[in-house]
Amino acid sequence: MAPQSTPKIWSLTWPIMIEMMLQFMLGTADTLMVSRISDDAVAVVGISNMFFNAVIILFSLITSGAGILIAQKLGAGKPDEARKIGIMSVSITAMLGMIVSALLIYGTPFFAEALHVPDNLRELSHTYMSIVGGGMMITALNLSMSTAVRNTGNTRSPMYIALGMNALHVVLNYAFIFGAFGFPEWGLKGVAISTVISRAVAFCFQQHLFRHAFGVPVLLREFCRFHAKLLKEVLRIGWPISVNGASWTFSQVVIFSMIASMGEQPLAARTYMNTMESFAFTFGWSLALAAQIQIAHLYGAKKLRQAYYGAYRALGFGVVVVLANTGILLLFRSFIISTFTKDPWIIDMAVSLLWLNLALQPGKMLNMALGQSLGAVGDSRTVMKYSLPSMWLIAVGVSYVLAVPLHWGLYGIYVGMISDEYIRGLLCYFRWRSHRKKHLFAEAFREPAAVRSSDNSSGVVPL
């Protein structure tokens, strides 16, 4: 079968961007509504969600590798193999999700202690973590299905599902937190219940979308079939991405634990900063994910020059946008922070940290764009080798030294995180350049001019 036409970067980006923005709005709505309960409740949601992000990384062992291979197989004209990979990824993540849900329902006291959650927040954390954690199987299924669908080039449909899920979540939050519409006033417990219900409703639509994503509807019996060769390909790409993602997330959990040991105010301030920073890099992350899908399609179709230059184009657009978004946050900084909290210490700290985002966000974009591009061509193992030492020696090690022994507090945390982003980003940049000269793209740049012109010698990827 002929290779599938390569999706344009903008047609991939804007639905992902809207979906990410909706997720950002969901997190903002959560934080804003929970802040009406107390700053303690905000701190619990912040550290719990960071922990859940670490748990979700486990599912990326399968979903990340599967997504890249689905795009590559479709680009190479092998839709049957893409279908088999998508189905396997859903089956395996469902099994992982069941195990994780059981552990989180019964093991929250252990995890809260491991995260150094302050004693006065333990009861709140147990309530929130056990309910949301118990729904991790639904989260796993949603992740695997949406990743598969998105890598077929259909980024719009997952966006519509996210829109509905976020709208429902906000309404249920309002009902369950404040006792509106005749519901009981459940507070933080209501936020957790709202999260699980909205994800379950999204799953109902997500499974219908996935079933029709590969042409002929997927049958239930297909989920019982495993293809060893394809699974090996998935794991080859997926395990380094998963290890890399897990390492980053767990490093953030360790950093959050450091902040938690400083007290409730620094923990709440960092949670509010997470919410605001999400706005700054949402478009950049969306662009990096879209570039990964497009580059994987191009690489599978052997359009190597377009694949190579596509990474730089995504990087250039991304840096401009994340700086513009950070500028907007700085312009309205006092108003935005005071919307979340009235605590003067938290407000002053968050405003100060926002200035450091002018340095942080371009480094994040460099890392995201080139890291995702390397993953798209199957070079995820190198990214992992670069990233692990930097995350733990720089992001964690430097942050700890500056924040604790030297008493820089949250400023020290940010210096460590900024240094880590640029070190990893620059290493990915030099690795990507090396592929043009010596490795994956070298053949395309050695071809005669007549051959190159037939493969878009300018390297411009259409928007």
Automatic annotation (TrEMBL):
It is found in: Cell membrane. The chain crosses the membrane at residues 12-29, 41-64, 85-107, 127-148, 160-180, 279-299, 311-332. One of its GO terms (cellular component) is plasma membrane. Pfam families: MatE. Keywords: Cell membrane, Membrane, Transmembrane, Transmembrane helix, Transport. It is a multi-pass membrane protein. The keyword NADP does not apply. Signal peptide: none annotated. One of its GO terms (molecular function) is xenobiotic transmembrane transporter activity. NCBIfam families: matE (TIGR00797). This is MATE family efflux transporter.
